[in-house]
Amino acid sequence: MDFINLFTSLEVSVWEKIFWSMWVSLGFAVIFTTPRRSMWVVAVLGGLGFSCRAFLLHWFDDQIVFASFISASLVGVLGVYFAHKVHTPPIVFTIPAVINIIPGKPGYEFMISLIEVMTLKEGEPLQFNYLVEMLEKVTRTGFTLLSLAFGVVFPLLIFKTRSVKKTHLDQLFFSKLNVLKKKKNSETSEH
Amino acid sequence: MNNSSIEIKFVGEFLSEVAITLMMNGANTSRTLKNTQRIAQGLGYEADFFFSLSGVVLSVRNKETNEMHTIVRAIPNIGVNFEIISEISILSWRVVNEKLDAYQVNEHFNRIKKIRHYSKPSIWLFVGLAGASLSRILGGSWPEFLITFLATVLGLIIRQFFTEKKFNIFIVFALASFTAVSTVNIFRILTGLDLNSAFAASVLFLIPGVPLINSFIDILEGYVAQGIARGVHGSVLIFVIAMGLFLSLFLFGYGFH
User: Fold this and answer.
1) Which CA distances in Å does B113 have to A23, B84, B86, B138?
2) pTM of this prediction?
3) Quick one: closest CA in B to A9, which residue?
4) How crowded is residue B78: how many other Cβ atoms within 10 Å of its Cβ?
């Protein structure tokens, strides 16, 4: 095996991808000027979201829309939790964190197939598979993006009745538990 | 003019400034509304807003004297700065909890407005690394890693240069994407390698993630007009990025066959 070949045909392992995904999130956090104190959250959430998607893709055989939605929701829910730890609104670190699950490759391939159709010469027949490929890529990219956005947003819509500051996830959980216990107690005392 | 009417004008001016700063730096509409109204309540006023993407109409009412003041301000379009948003959010809670008066709040706010982006070299380093990492995630090799780093940094420098010259944002994005893709293209011609992941990753630093996600949030929370405006803005940015990519591929010959 010559030197060039060794250098170019390196297989990228999942762990390495997870490591790089943190750097992607950090880079976007720097563009958006996320405060320094919440950088570690960006890295952690970025890594978690990416590994969740990698795991789901492995389990559910290339269901990229579903996998992106679940991992974006995970990032969104954890964002509500971490907002108290670093005293920043959740959006500040959830947007950079989900950016590493943006469907880059299908998006790029969609643009390429679009260019292939656009640059056909006069009289050259349009091949059907160009169109089918284009349609497939645009559907997949569009819906992945939508599900990403929705995954990030819906925890905010559910928990933020007035402000995230008033919703501690753990307290919310325990208070619900207490209500359930009381109900049970009152039911048992009645009978 | 008596004292309270001077103060209500001051507060109106100041609140509209807060709203504009939040919208300019990438806050969604409901966050802007909540933070400004929280500050207004803390100061003893009631505020009502009408937002659009390019302007804001605000009227404040003094709760005791029922005096009203209305103000219309334009929103100039400047990039995203999340640190300002989070500092304003903290300030709005301080107004409620520590009972600051209008002039103190204004002083704090002026300090917040001065927050700048990170220094240019650190942006180049981190964003270059982000682009390079993305090419690695997409299955690129180490040469592609380096090429993407270089392309991203060059694209960023172009973007910052033309943004400082106050060019139209769409032209800036087209030029940046053209530069980044052309860099990869030149390396493709020089080395003869197939640089597919580098092509895909080199323009990703331009992706308008904040306008697109904010547009979705706005629509879901009922601010449909602003949401559509932001969505159209983000989509046109994507279109412009694709145009830069297309132009570069057209000039250098198609490398994707």
Assistant:
1) 28, 7, 12, 38
2) 0.83
3) B141
4) 14
